[in-house]
Specification:
Structural class: mainly beta
Strand content: 35-45%
Shape: globular
CATH superfamily: Jelly Rolls
Largest sheet: 6 strands, antiparallel
Strand order of the largest sheet: 1-2-3-10-5-8
Number of helices: 1
Helix content: under 10%
Number of strands: 13
CATH architecture: Sandwich
CATH topology: Jelly Rolls
CATH class: Mainly Beta
Number of domains: 1
Order of helices and strands: EEHEEEEEEEEEEE
Amino acid sequence: MSDGAPRKTVLDPMSLEPRIGTGYPAPYDAIALNREKRAMGDAFGLSQFGVNLAHLPPGEASSQRHWHSGTDEFVYILEGEATLITDAGEQVLGAGMAMGFPAGVADGHHLVNKSDATVTYLEIGTRDARVICSYPDIDLHRGLVDGEGRFTRKDGSSFEDPS
């Protein structure tokens, strides 16, 4: 942490301000409007990888189905039951189960909570703003625009365009 604040070494994740919802542009944000994440990696000043404590209410998805060109992802289910959806189909995962997605493997994936209880999980991934994120099911792309990671349509047009 370069702001002069003392570096944290221990914390209660629930003391962190949650991010609720998603950064997806409409209408793609509707899938995860109530998803909650607490950025534990940020709280510790980690720069090599991120760690989020996530809560996924019933009926919500972790994200749109996606894959990353250069970012590894690891997810560990702490509590509840989630359905993992990949190119291979669906698989129900419970507490204590883990999944991993290597960078550059074009296997769109996400979790959907089809149960009646909130799912709690850790998500861990490498950090690289230059990484391209592909969304196989929808007209969405995340890549570099003017040096910053941004969402566009697959043809590169902005969501602000009237087309």
